[in-house]
Design goal:
Length: about 675
């Protein structure tokens, strides 16, 4: 057996972990492999004890499972035996280290008072009982009026951390929500801390001007015309749902235009429409009858990864996991639900169409992806799609509403689903529906690489820092266990009956998905619990990083810039060094430069050099020497965003790229046109 010694570590709160060994023989024979029954055993064996192998001269890989709950904190030594006909052929020694779980403590609630349009920072105590470094970061994108900077806690450290509350474009009154702070250790243990946050926004108390009669004059409002068009052909989009400053809803007319009367200044806007990606942006209103255009992209994603199905391939029928979605929410609340679409006996390309536009605040996406195929035609499409249903009950009267959507493009006639929304008065304290109340049927797990290719349990070669997406049932019977260099890449997202999780692979590792089953044994009269991998997509995924040398350094990424201000077109050099700032890293990771919009600039007291257009994030890829270069062609202010789950800091939190302006006397362009031109 190989290897002769295996070293594995886990935290005491983990359920199960796995590791791999291999066995072979000089000649064909049958042998039994035994660990420690019900504690360390071959995965999938009937009695959690011994498995029989038919060995040959070729290596045979065996996945072993460790029941962590059967061990106490400390170091344990377990022998794994390979025997045949009563004789021990070989052994492997498992050195199992069970680590004690620490905790990060933050206040359960934070309340502040902020003047309208102002910003307030408050320091609270963060205490770590971990024996290793812990990185804290804001794990939720909402609420957007609470900011928390990435913070590193040393072992057993207690120190103040800062939360910043911003009341920009917030109406006076209480604003309450929950913020989730992620805590990830050097050993990749991840937890989330829930904090109830309340911001009381007081009306602006600016001093009264002279004469006193001026105080009664309200700031005049300006008319703005919002145009919504398709990204690909600039055609107007009618009946799109708009929300200004989270308080004023509206819709576009047949020409794709909506008109509002607003105060002068910066305003936030959200635009949603069935079959299109939601747009979140801002605009600066400065003059009467100002026109602003926003672009929406359709959700028919690129299907380049799939071959074109020949004409003889049949049109698939489809199955919807739900034909009726029932939701209870309060006025001014939002909710999102998901419907699974599964093809059968063929290939299809689908779209979602609403029976009517009203209510416009109930929105459904196209199936994502839209091209689907049953397993026997998998090269022509995805094995399932997801329809996302969004409910935005802003300024909606209490009552019951419904909207029917049709899924077109398959051989199933009248494939449709209806969304029924019961809107309750604000403050009625209606309890949210139980996420486990969905009938998930037989559980299915889907694991995809960053290339969006679905994979099955088994061995897979991947690149370092590969991001995998795990789509599993949102159910308490689900068990996910990991070993090796794998860490959560983002916070889990629970969407109705499903849960989406992302992991980053930093080295060789495994990910095991199991389903806890309960059955009654008539012979013993006992309730038996078994962890099964018999369902589709369930089992152990073993990832091997394709590189010659694997290193797992205990470092903190620190990115150094030469300066904070650059000109458009200038080459910017980045260098990643370790936390002492002295050594280059053997790290080929990625960070992003996110364009800072006008609203964020105003919140952060940043003066933008020019009006900022709508820009896409810029990815910066580091090579194995911890170095990177990037040429930024568009002027603006860019915020440094680190890789999720890696301790990170930057010499400048933001960099400014100024437009390069030439003296007109230095420009001497001569354009020569021939006859054809």
């Amino acid at each position: 057996m190989e290897p002769a010694q295996i070293e594995v570590s886990a935290y005491e709160d983990q359920d199960f972990i796995t590791f791999n060994i291999s066995a072979y023989a000089s000649e064909n024979l049958t042998a039994n492999l035994t660990g420690l029954p019900n504690k360390v055993y071959p995965l999938g064996c009937a009695d959690n004890g011994t498995i029989t192998l038919n060995l040959t001269t070729s290596e045979q890989n065996i996945t072993m499972e460790v029941n962590i709950s059967a061990f106490s904190v400390g170091i344990h030594y377990i022998q794994i035996y390979l025997e045949s006909n009563g004789s021990i052929l070989d052994t492997s020694l498992l050195v199992l280290t069970i680590k004690e779980v620490g905790k990060v403590t933050l206040p359960p609630s934070i309340s502040v008072t902020v003047e309208q349009g102002g910003t307030t920072s408050i320091s609270v105590s963060a205490t770590s009982t971990w024996s290793e470094y812990v990185e804290l970061f804001k794990a939720s994108s909402f609420p957007d009026w609470v900011q928390f900077p990435n913070t590193t806690l040393a072992p057993y450290e207690s120190r103040p951390v800062t939360f910043t509350f911003t009341a920009l474009n917030k109406e006076p009154g209480p604003w309450s929500s929950k913020v989730y702070i992620g805590a990830i250790t050097e050993g990749d243990h991840y937890e989330e801390i829930e904090i109830n946050v309340t911001m009381m926004v007081n009306a602006s108390s600016s001093p009264s001007p002279t004469p006193p009669s001026d105080t009664s004059q309200e700031e005049p409002k300006l008319t703005v015309h919002i145009h919504v068009v398709k990204q690909e052909n600039l055609e107007p989009i009618p009946n799109a749902y708009l929300i200004i400053d989270n308080s004023q809803p509206g819709r576009t007319n047949e020409e794709g235009t909506a008109t509002f009367s607003l105060k002068k200044g910066l305003h936030n806007i959200r635009i949603a429409k069935t079959g299109y990606y939601e747009v979140t942006s801002s605009f600066n209103l400065q003059e009467e009858d100002q026109h602003v255009t926003f672009y929406m992209s359709t959700q028919n994603e690129s299907q380049d990864q799939y071959e074109q199905a020949p004409s003889e391939v049949p049109l698939a029928k489809i199955f919807l996991s739900k034909t009726k979605v029932e939701v209870e929410i309060e006025v001014d609340e939002e909710d999102t639900r998901r419907i699974l679409v599964v093809p059968n006996d063929g290939v299809c390309e689908l779209e979602t169409i609403a029976e009517s536009d009203d209510p416009i605040w109930i929105i459904a996406s196209n199936p994502m992806p839209s091209k689907l195929a049953s397993p026997e035609y998998s090269k022509y499409g995805a094995e399932y799609g997801i329809i996302e249903v969004k409910i935005i009950a802003l300024e909606v009267e209490p009552g019951t509403y419904s909207k029917t959507f049709y899924v077109l493009g398959s051989a199933t006639h009248n494939a449709s689903f209806t969304v029924v929304v019961k809107v309750k008065p604000k403050g009625s304290n209606s309890s949210s529906s139980n996420p486990y109340a969905y009938d998930v049927g037989e559980p299915v797990a889907v694991v995809k690489l960053s290339s969006r290719v679905s994979i099955e349990p088994g061995f897979h070669n991947v690149v370092e820092h590969e991001i995998i997406t795990v789509d599993v049932p949102n159910h308490p019977n689900l068990i996910i266990a990991t070993t090796g260099q794998i860490a959560p890449h983002s916070s889990p997202v629970a969407l109705g009956p499903r849960k989406i999780m992302e992991f980053m692979i930093n080295g060789d590792c495994t990910l095991t998905i199991k389903w806890r089953e309960t059955s009654y044994n008539l012979q013993t009269g006992q309730l038996e619990i078994r962890n099964s991998t018999a369902y589709q997509g369930f089992g152990t995924y073993q990832f091997k990083v394709s590189r010659e040398v694997q290193k797992r350094a205990k470092w903190k990424i620190k990115v150094k810039f030469e300066k904070a201000v650059y000109y458009a077109g200038e080459i910017i050099s980045f260098k990643a060094v370790n936390k002492t700032g002295t050594l280059e890293l053997d790290w080929n990771g990625e960070m992003k430069l996110i364009p800072v919009g006008s609203q964020e600039a105003q919140e952060s007291n940043i003066t933008l050099p020019i009006p900022i257009p709508r820009l896409e994030p810029i990815e910066v890829d580091f090579d194995n020497d911890g170095e990177a270069t990037k040429q930024i062609l568009v002027a603006g202010v860019y915020k440094v965003v680190p890789p999720t789950g890696i301790p990170f800091e930057s010499s400048f939190p933001m960099i400014t790229v100024l437009p390069r302006v030439l003296d007109p006397y230095e420009i001497d362009y001569k354009v020569h046109l021939d006859e054809k031109t």
